[in-house]
UniProtKB/TrEMBL annotation:
<protein>
    <recommendedName>
        <fullName>DUF1102 domain-containing protein</fullName>
    </recommendedName>
</protein>
<feature type="region of interest" description="Disordered">
    <location>
        <begin position="156"/>
        <end position="184"/>
    </location>
</feature>
Amino acid sequence: MSLNVSDDSYAYLQVEPTTGATFAEDDPDGLIQLNFDDTSGASGSGLNANADTGFGPEFTIANQGTDPVLVTIDPTPVDDELGGDGSLSFFAYSQEYDGKGATLKSTDQNSPGRSGVILESGTQVKVSGLFRDIDASDIDEDLSDASITIYAVSDNSELYPNGGPSDNRAGIRINSDGTVDNTG
């Protein structure tokens, strides 16, 4: 599965695998792929059946723009491929942020509720993930064509005018001085 970044002329993101990432790697087309098989150098293959499988932190999202942005991730294509009750979620890696954490999963960027992380200009967030309730029939599912979209919505967004950081109470805010606030 690959990670895409939604186009918004007011939001500038950098997305990179973290140092020591187990499953995230750059591909030749400049995308990040999450590989849960032996191509990633990890032992084993696929997901655990009838279990939750956590991973990460696997990649870093950095705000390279001049405005704060609300970052969310939409894994709907992966959830659709998994079917049943299986799902994929992403989280701010809480050990980096004094135990404060936030889910980044949102399927409605114009009204994400309490999802997401607000990144001030020049800040970044390390991202972990969790596969939940994976049915035994889905552990061999080919997710290589499923993509995940990362959204960075500013207050000036032309695509999501109600989805910026001033309009929402995300899980955490990462300030330019390095401090972290719970906002939800």
